[in-house]
Design brief:
single chain; about 240 residues; alpha/beta; Rossmann fold; Arc Repressor Mutant, subunit A; five-stranded parallel sheet; 11 strands
């Protein structure tokens, strides 16, 4: 049974969301502020985090909002650092969402939201995190190795932790080296339940380059095709 951590300061949102997720077969744990969210995350090691961006500061403690929590998770070690994150946000400024995506969130859902839609998003992100068929072939490009069956990415034999969204985008492009993918095509690769702005693809690509490129400012693997999108270019 997959465990979902809900982080929100509104008890009613936690209550309703918990009910829908539990009926969908998930185990649910919750937290109402940033410090408790990180404590529960470390203790429970959830399979996915639903994270409100706008969290209050606990009395007598330093403020720790949703972006801070996402940043702390991504700075962690091991597999937990790539735990899928779905952001909840009542903020209308697109930049807040972009910042969250640049910190490594996999998806976002604006408030108010449909609990059924949120459950669908959770399932979609978890599907992207699931292993591919064990007979899927390895993809090698220079020092980079991609193992779809185990959803592993390695540079020179060293494992690189990618979020499910980052791995899906990398696998999509690397499976067809030289092919130019538009931002809309890359969004489609994330599945029909993923509704994002084309600009969010740029945030995920930026994060991906930071993890796999020798020099992210002058990438060798994931190239920008101006006016068209991106392509995976195997090194000579």
């Amino acid at each position: 049974m997959k465990t979902i951590l809900i982080v929100d300061d509104e008890p009613e949102i936690i209550r309703v969301t918990r009910g829908y997720l539990e009926r969908a077969g998930f185990r649910v744990v919750s937290a109402g502020n940033g410090p408790s969210a990180l404590a529960v995350f470390r203790r429970e090691e959830p399979d996915l985090v639903i994270l409100d961006l706008n969290l209050p500061a606990p009395p007598g403690q330093e403020p720790l909002d949703g972006l801070d929590v996402a940043r702390a998770i991504r700075r962690g070690r091991g597999r937990s650092s790539s735990t899928p994150i779905i952001m909840l946000t009542a903020r209308v400024d697109e930049m807040d969402r972009v910042i969250g995506l640049e910190l490594g969130a996999d998806d976002y859902v604006p408030k108010p939201f449909s609990p059924r839609e949120l459950v669908a998003r959770v399932r979609a992100v978890l599907r992207r995190a699931a292993p591919s068929p064990s007979n899927a072939r390895l993809i090698r490009a220079g020092q980079l190795t991609i193992d779809p069956g185990r959803r592993l990415t390695m540079i020179g034999g060293r494992s690189i932790e990618l979020t499910p969204t980052e791995f899906t985008l990398l696998l999509t492009m690397a499976s067809a080296p030289g092919q130019v993918f538009s931002r809309a095509q890359l969004l489609d690769a994330l599945g029909p339940d993923h509704e994002g702005l084309e600009r969010t693809v740029d945030s995920h690509i930026k994060n991906l380059r930071a993890k796999i490129e020798t020099d992210p400012r002058q990438p060798d693997l994931i190239l920008t095709v101006f006016g068209a999108g991106y392509k995976f270019d195997e090194p000579d």
